[in-house]
Amino acid sequence: MTSSAVPVSAKQGEEEVTTRAEIERLTRAGKEAMKDDRQDQALFLFKKAFLLSCKLLEGRAKRMCLFNLGAAYVAAGNAKKGLKCFVKCKLMDPEDRNADMHFNIAIAYDHMEEYAKAARFYQKVVSCYSPGQGVCLGDTLLKLGYCSVSLGDTDSAASSFRQAGRAYQGAGRMEDAAVALRESANHAMHGGGSVPRAQVLDTLRECLQMCESIADPSLRGKLLNDVGLHYAELLSFCQAAECFQEALGCSLGQSSSARKRAVLLQNIGAMHNALAQYPESLQYHAEAADMYSTDMPSEMSGNKAHAVLCALQR
Questions:
Q1: Which of 104, 177, 182, 258 can bridge 291 by disulfide, Cβ–Cβ 3.0-4.6 Å?
Q2: What would the pLDDT profile of 276-293 be if each residue is shown by its tens digit?
Q3: What is the DSSP string of the chain?
């Protein structure tokens, strides 16, 4: 009599194929939920996938599911649980130098406000990237910079932001490059003072070069105004005035408020005043004041009065 029973090994093979297919389905659904910011749903799906992966003999699928679960925990605001998942993943393959793993561990520490540990892992990530991964490198250096700010190390922050700017530039991301360079200059100026003035000026020049490629007039105008303020702090009044003037041009035809344009006019007037160009200063302050129909700030009035007095004395 012939037996119709399916061999145990064949049955196990079929079950494994089914299990792997279900893990893949749950993983795809979990990633879609993450993209749509449905964090609770993503967490539910990745948990199911992980539990299924525990039935498999080899550990690669389990490690992948554990990694996804950790990322879901961090995205859902539970960085501590997420970190535990990442640590277990790391223990399963201690020799792994995967940049994604280090990056997610850094993110978890960052969310837990353990900035020194986060910075250490961000640095590991930086060393993993190749020159062709400019955007990823820029993103990591940006996060490393903000960790350094939180640790009070503004010089390291300025260096990281500057490197991020150059990484973004190499990847053709000019908007991101300009923002990163502006951050670098800001922290270099307001840090311990060990960054040479010439280096800060170089960074500001690089930022202005990136601004030329920015199509969004609102962002471009904001960055130009910020750079102008930095130039003013460095007593480079001519360069500051040029930045404010260009920022004013960006506001034309935009939905910028009259107050924003008035502030730019006031800034230009202040630079002319600093350069002892009093009639020009008075003209810009007067134009700014006209933009305030009734509620003109006392500071604006004071600046206009000062410009008038200087013009008369001249």
A1: 258
A2: 999 999 999 888 888 765
A3: ----PPPHHHHHHHHHHHHHHHHHHHHHHHHHHHHTT-HHHHHHHHHHHHHHHTTSSSSHHHHHHHHHHHHHHHHTT-HHHHHHHHHHHHHH-TT---HHHHHHHHHHHHHTT-HHHHHHHHHHHHHH--TT-HHHHHHHHHHHHHHHHHTT-HHHHHHHHHHHHHHHHHTT-HHHHHHHHHHHHHHHHSSSS-S-HHHHHHHHHHHHHHHTT---HHHHHHHHHHHHHHHHHTT-HHHHHHHHHHHHHHHTTS---HHHHHHHHHHHHHHHHHTT-HHHHHHHHHHHHHT-SS---HHHHHHHHHHHHHHHH-
